[in-house]
Structure prediction request, 383 residues.
Amino acid sequence: MIDPRPAAVAGKLAGVKRILAFAGAKGGVGKTICAVGSALALSAAGKRTGLLDLDFQGASAHILLGAELSFPEEASGIKPFTVAGGLELMSIAAFSGERPVPLRGTSVTEAILELLAVTVWGRLEFLIIDMPPGSGDEVLDLIRYVARAEFVLVTTLSPLALPVGGRLLRLLEELGVPVLGLIENMAPGPRRAREGAQAKTAEPLLALPLLGRLPYDPDLDRLIGDPRALMGSCLGRELSKIAARL
Amino acid sequence: MHEWALAEAVLATVEKIRREQGGGAVRSVRVGIGELQAVDLEAFRLGLSSLLEGSDLAPEVFQFQKEAASFRCNRCAAEWLLTDQGPEGEEAREAIHFLPEAAYVYLRCPSCGSPDFRLQAGRGVSIQEVELEGGGD
Prediction:
């Protein structure tokens, strides 16, 4: 039996110039904020941008965007949702709502392939992919089916996050996948940053080109669901600077 | 109709196989239509016919075979068919039509109620066999 979908993926992504996966092996480091914020900034800069939420178990890009998803419109496939003034969004949440999504490995692969093979992105300058934590099925499947994907790694400077992110970097290097650089999230103030840098110079993750450093924002929750407020905040301004470097 | 995209996928795969095997004429393509995704076969055929315009492939080479969807529970080992216990309500049916993995969101083991089960057969569209002039498949 032959699965027909892999042969269709390249065609469905043919109009997309660049595909950037925002990943980070440790959970809670802020991948979604960085992916969504960068996508919003690119879109606001006049670049046609799509956002694919591949974090099936923790899909939340739509929550951050304040987007209510129903079933997608069908064309020669399924059409992404246009949200926040022009960003094109596709998420498993369109089909699962806020119910649990208990997928095992092979089903994760099936779902990724289906979304890649039937979503009609059209012409985009950027497709941003919000990856789940870890270096498992989603990362391996994306590399397998979308060979031209480039990765952006996100981390905090926590001693729990840096080594775990370093393992993902090692995997990507081993597979020959391009890694554009690093976003340091929830960055500490200058004094603590200096102390931290001295202690962590051996971390391979920190040797990546630094795309940007996002400050810790204790009031982040008030920005959730309001893309305009997010991009108008200090965090949003820093994300816009990062997007300009992509 | 997203059946169009599935038809595109089948056609792209057949062409790929044909290129890899020397470009011979296609004698037949056996396409499996899994019950779970509830593909509209007429919409699929229509998409296929449109995509084949200008191609040397005739719609008649495509044969369709429906496959029953069956499941096995990872917790209690019960096995069941979609026809025994399928999705309830339009929302669940639509979600599974768009993305068959939504079955894990909406279906439960009829024996123990677990959402941890495995789809054994009948997911969606597959290619079961491609027969080319000259005998390769």
About this structure: The radius of gyration of chain A is 17 Å.
